[in-house]
């Protein structure tokens, strides 16, 4: 795989340097670790996210108002170290506690948990909400075992908005957990993504093959099939997604179609059109739709569909303004448009 | 036991041993990547290589008088540089066993067995995994049990590690029969069967390399 890199061991550091050059007005790097925090920290519960590199613009692009106050960044596809998380949490803490919001992976849990223990010595209270949106990774009765994929965006959005309201750590945690419980995703892979510096991709798919439910690190999915049309593919994915979620006719959802890296916006928009048709047919109300590539895996091909089931409280938080280098939302005045 | 006897090595020799182990693990990066890619996300070899590179840097920069500090340096280098599940777990393999241990200037089989026994408990506690979950524990627990048995029989350090390597390799073999209950391979279910665990493989490489280094010393 052709990659525009220098030393493979320096990709994370050099990418952060480039990011800092572009956005230094609004963000600061935490000294000595791969952590980034926002400059305009407020007197509120701090939201800290993070995970492995290689998924840009997650996580570093989501530092800002109404989103993460800080992110801890690991090596490519590897969780950040405990001391990275610890230093980021200390840098953003304003005495009101820190909520960790991140995808449910063994490595991330181990490192964030170890950081929580270290932060106890600093008298900083932490809570954790794990994003568990990938329905292909475990059955519904084990929702807590599911991995976190593009659903990070919705859950982080809700956490950031709740914290901006000045709520307590317990309240921010409660509503963020609710958002995590109501976020469901499913993905399909058409091609692998390669770790910079590696010559072999982590898995191989035939030219005409796709894999349903494949994880964003190439974790094997539900089944392999031949490539099909966008509508057929979207229908099959969306049906499975609804089957594995608790979303019923009459429910209201925010929809996010996420590209995994090399699938183009042109293709993603075609998928989004079909998702809208299908949800309309099923009498599921669409509150909002977003089509983007926030959670990528290098040049991996494919996409995921994420649904956040909304209630009155979540809708208000969803609509709150947010502004980070790679995610923006202006306060929306809704006119009852479906 | 005195430092001069063949059955124990000095802190400085422990440092050299782990420098050698690090080289061997780094050499195994392509193999570990391949094994991990089959059922995980393929980053295990890269992570271990990052950790042992950092450990080598920190070991080379210091002189050591206690075994404790050598283990601590290796473990903390991993925890602070690797990230991922491997960083915490393999870091704990080195720091988990020296907590509360009085300073030791030399390492014999009894001490190694006791350090790794405590480390195993720490890993189980942190990782919430046990034997049969298709993790590094499947190799490390047999290693610890074997080291303890050999230590009770007053075997030499190298003999203990020889036996431990056999136990580790059997443990790696056993992981092929297991469904993963932990980590990213968990979602595979039955499809993980037939594949060995990358973390267990690394344990076997570490033990094998420790043994090789000791054998090399004996030949000098």
Q: What is the topological layout?
A:
The complex is a heterodimer of chains A (about 350) and B (about 220).
Chain A: H1 11-23, E1 27-30, E2 35-38, E3 46-53, E4 70-76, H2 82-92, E5 98-103, H3 106-121, E6 126-131, H4 152-164, H5 169-181, E7 183-191, E8 209-212, E9 223-226, H6 230-244, E10 252-259, H7 265-281, E11 285-292, E12 301-310, H8 312-319, E13 322-324, E14 327-329
Parallel strand pairs in A: 3-4, 3-5, 5-6, 10-11
Antiparallel strand pairs in A: 1-2, 2-4, 7-8, 7-12, 8-9, 10-12, 13-14
Chain B: E1 8-10, H1 11-27, H2 29-39, H3 44-60, H4 67-81, H5 84-95, E2 106-108, H6 109-127, H7 137-152, H8 157-175, H9 198-219
Helix pairs in contact in B: 1-3, 1-4, 1-9, 2-3, 2-9, 3-4, 3-5, 4-5, 5-6, 6-7, 7-8, 7-9, 8-9
Which terms would index this structure?
heterodimer; A: 338 residues; alpha/beta; 2 domains; six-stranded mixed beta sheet; 31% helix; B: 220 residues; mainly alpha; Serine Threonine Protein Phosphatase 5, Tetratricopeptide repeat; two-stranded antiparallel sheet; 9 helices; disordered N terminus
The structural domain count of chain A equals 2
Give the DSSP E fraction of chain A (strand runs of 2 or more residues).
Answer: 15-25%
Task: Output the structural class of chain A.
Answer: alpha/beta
- For the CA atoms, what is the radius of gyration of chain B? 16 Å
**What characterizes the major β-sheet of chain A?**
6 strands, mixed
Strand segment count of chain A: 14
Q: CATH fold name of chain B, please?
A: Serine Threonine Protein Phosphatase 5, Tetratricopeptide repeat
Portion of residues within helices of chain B: 55-70%
Name the overall outline of chain A.
globular
The CATH homologous superfamily of the largest domain in chain A is called Dihydroxyacetone kinase, domain 1
Overall residue-averaged pLDDT value of chain B: 92
Count of alpha/pi helices of chain A: 8
* Overall pLDDT score of chain A: 95
Low-confidence stretches of chain B: 1-5
- Rg of chain A, nearest Å: 19 Å
The ordered H/E elements of chain A are HEEEEHEHEHHEEEHEHEEHEE
Termini separation of chain A comes to: 43 Å
CATH superfamily of chain B: DhaL domain
Largest sheet strand order of chain B: 1-2
Instruction: Based on Cα principal axes, name the global outline of chain B.
Output: globular
Query: Could you estimate the helical fraction of the residues of chain A in percent?
Result: 25-40%
């Amino acid at each position: 795989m052709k990659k525009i890199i220098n030393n493979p061991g320096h990709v994370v550091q050099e990418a952060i340097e480039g990011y800092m050059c572009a956005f230094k007005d609004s963000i600061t790097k935490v000294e000595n670790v791969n952590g980034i925090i926002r400059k305009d920290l407020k007197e509120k519960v701090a939201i800290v996210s993070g995970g492995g590199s290689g998924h840009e613009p997650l996580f570093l692009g989501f530092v800002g108002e109404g989103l993460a106050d800080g992110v801890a960044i690991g090596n490519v596809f590897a969780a950040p170290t405990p001391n990275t998380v610890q230093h980021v949490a200390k840098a953003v803490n304003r005495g009101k506690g820190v909520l960790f919001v991140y995808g449910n992976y063994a490595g991330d849990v181990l490192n964030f948990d170890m950081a929580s223990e270290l932060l106890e010595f600093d008298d900083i209270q932490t809570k954790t909400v794990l994003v568990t949106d990938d329905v292909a990774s475990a059955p519904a009765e084990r929702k807590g075992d599911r991995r976190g994929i593009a659903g990070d965006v919705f859950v982080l959005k809700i956490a950031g908005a709740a914290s901006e309201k000045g709520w307590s750590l317990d309240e921010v945690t409660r509503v963020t957990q609710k958002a995590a419980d109501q976020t469901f995703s499913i993905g399909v892979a058409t091609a692998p993504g390669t770790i910079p510096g590696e010559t072999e991709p982590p898995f191989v798919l035939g030219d005409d093959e796709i894999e349903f439910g494949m994880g964003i690190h190439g974790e094997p999915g539900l089944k392999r099939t031949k490539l099909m049309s966008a509508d057929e593919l979207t229908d099959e994915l969306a049906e499975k997604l609804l089957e594995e979620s608790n979303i019923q006719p009459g429910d209201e959802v925010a929809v996010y179609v996420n590209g995994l890296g090399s699938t183009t916006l042109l293709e993603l928009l075609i998928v989004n059109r079909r998702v809208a048709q299908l949800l309309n047919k099923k009498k599921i109300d669409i509150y909002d739709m977003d089509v983007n590539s926030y959670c990528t895996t290098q040049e991996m091909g494919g996409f995921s569909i994420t649904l956040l089931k909304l209630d009155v409280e979540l809708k208000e938080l969803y609509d709150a303004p947010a502004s980070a280098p790679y995610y923006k939302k202006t306060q929306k005045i809704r006119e009852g448009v479906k | 036991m005195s430092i001069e006897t063949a059955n124990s090595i000095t802190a400085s020799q422990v440092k050299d041993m782990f420098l050698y182990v690090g080289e061997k693990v780094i050499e195994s990066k392509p193999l570990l990547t391949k094994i991990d890619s089959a059922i995980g996300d393929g980053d295990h070899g890269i992570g271990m290589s990052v950790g042992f590179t950092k450990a080598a840097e920190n070991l080379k920069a210091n002189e050591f008088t206690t075994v404790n500090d050598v283990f601590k340096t290796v473990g903390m280098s991993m925890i602070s540089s690797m990230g991922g599940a491997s960083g915490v777990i393999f870091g704990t393999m080195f720091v988990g066993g020296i907590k509360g241990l009085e300073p030791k200037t030399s390492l014999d089989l009894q001490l190694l067995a006791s350090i790794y026994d405590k480390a195993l408990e720490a890993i189980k506690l942190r990782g919430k995994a046990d034997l049969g979950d298709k993790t590094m524990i499947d190799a490390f627990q047999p290693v610890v049990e074997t080291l303890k048995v050999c230590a009770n029989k007053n075997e030499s350090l190298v003999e203990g590690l020889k036996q431990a390597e056999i136990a580790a390799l059997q443990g790696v073999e056993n992981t092929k029969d297991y469904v993963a209950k932990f980590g990213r391979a968990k979602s595979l279910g039955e499809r993980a069967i037939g594949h060995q665990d990358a973390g267990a493989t690394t344990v076997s490489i570490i033990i094998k390399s420790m043994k090789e280094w000791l054998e090399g010393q004996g030949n000098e």
